[in-house]
Design a protein that fits this description.
- By secondary structure, the protein is mainly α.
- It has one domain.
- The chain is built from 15 helices and six strands.
- The chain has a two-stranded antiparallel ribbon. A two-stranded antiparallel sheet has the order 3-4. The protein has a two-stranded antiparallel sheet with strand order 5-6.
- The longest helix has 32 residues.
- It is globular, with a radius of gyration of 20 Å.
- It starts with 7 loop residues before the first helix and ends with a strand.
- It comes from Rhizobium mayense.
- Its main location: membrane.
- It is found in: Cell membrane.
- Keywords: Cell membrane, Membrane, Transmembrane, Transmembrane helix.
């Protein structure tokens, strides 16, 4: 029987959603983890930790979904991408594990609490930087020969990938600051506003640099953005990015509590859209398009059945956990 429906776009949307939701949800709690290292005192650290305690581990569900979805739906891409970014992914996973251990041990090891506090902050920073390096490696591309990665173990390590690693640290810091403004009060919130403006400055600088560097690095990306009518069609992305950045800067200096967090999300949405515009329909940049890397239609159809049952479950329990733990936090009693 001939399959009429092309499942590649559907799986592209599922994986795109999984990656983006992971970036937003784990992004803000990694950002909070980095800002945690700048907390002024024990009470502030407790309040900051309480703001993410109920949700931080569930956020990583989306990372698992994205990784397994890539393996199942686009195995050729998985086989090429993972060797290319093996070391930054390994570092990221080890940092996430170390961060999780630190989160639990700081509550039970009173004598070593300072060590575990620093471990939690450094683990968050290292995991974020590693994710940014993976992103930079994907955007700049890497050598592929006969359907296999043809580079070395250090191919990922370039000035561009280091830039994106640092840029993502500022980006997650901005999300974390927005979350703390939303969930805390007083001196913690005031500090988050100041930190948010510093992170926003870093984000704007990183976006501007990447936006200039990427078309210089790739003629295909330059043609995608700067030929007619694409230049008019895609112009709203950088224009809206500038408008939202300016609006978020002002919101960080105001009394608004919810809007700064959503301003940060807006910047991530537009940055994600910019990457999609630059790379689609490639899944291994400049080497393989989605259809070349996809598994068989029967495999994708089989996997889609289970995924369509799984996704509503994940969305439901994730949404419910955020709803239950809505509101402000306090250092002594958690949520009020």
């Amino acid at each position: 029987m001939t399959q009429v429906l092309d499942l590649v776009p559907i799986w592209t949307l599922i994986l795109g959603l999984a990656v983006f939701v992971y970036v937003l949800l784990d992004g803000f709690d990694l950002g909070v983890g980095m800002l945690y290292g700048f907390a002024a005192d024990k009470r502030s650290r407790n309040a900051i930790m309480n703001s993410i305690a109920p949700v931080w581990d569930g956020n990583e569900t989306w990372l698992v979904l994205g990784g397994l979805g890539l393996l199942a739906a686009f195995p050729t891409a998985f086989a090429v991408i993972i060797p290319a970014v093996y070391f930054p992914i390994l570092v990221m996973l080890l940092a996430l594990v170390f961060r999780g251990v630190a989160f639990e041990f700081r509550s039970h090891e009173a004598e070593d609490k300072g060590f575990w506090d620093r471990a939690f902050s450094f683990g968050s920073a290292i995991a974020t930087f590693a994710q940014g390096v993976v992103l930079g490696t994907m955007v700049q591309g890497f050598p592929v020969r006969d359907g296999q990665f043809a580079g070395t173990s250090l191919t990922f390590l370039t000035p561009f990938s280091i830039l994106t690693g640092v840029g993502l640290m500022f980006g997650y810091g901005l999300l974390g600051a927005g979350w703390l403004i939303l969930k805390t009060e007083g001196t913690i919130q005031a500090a988050a506003r100041r930190q948010g403006r510093i992170c926003l400055s870093g984000v704007v600088a990183a976006i501007a640099t990447v936006s200039i560097w990427t078309p210089i690095m790739s003629s295909a990306v330059a043609a995608r953005w700067f030929t007619w009518p694409n230049i008019a069609l895609f112009a709203p992305i950088p224009v809206l990015s500038g408008v939202i950045a300016l609006g978020t800067w002002r919101l960080l200096g105001s009394k608004a509590e919810t809007a700064p967090f959503f301003g940060a999300i807006g910047l991530f949405v537009l940055a994600y859209a910019g990457i999609a515009v630059s790379l689609y329909p490639m899944i291994v940049p400049y080497q393989l398009i989605l259809w070349q890397a996809a598994s068989s239609p029967r495999t994708q159809a089989f996997l889609l059945v289970g995924t369509l049952f799984l996704l509503p479950v994940i969305l439901t329990y994730s949404g419910w956990s955020y709803w239950v733990f809505r509101g402000k936090v306090r250092a002594e009693v958690g949520y009020e």
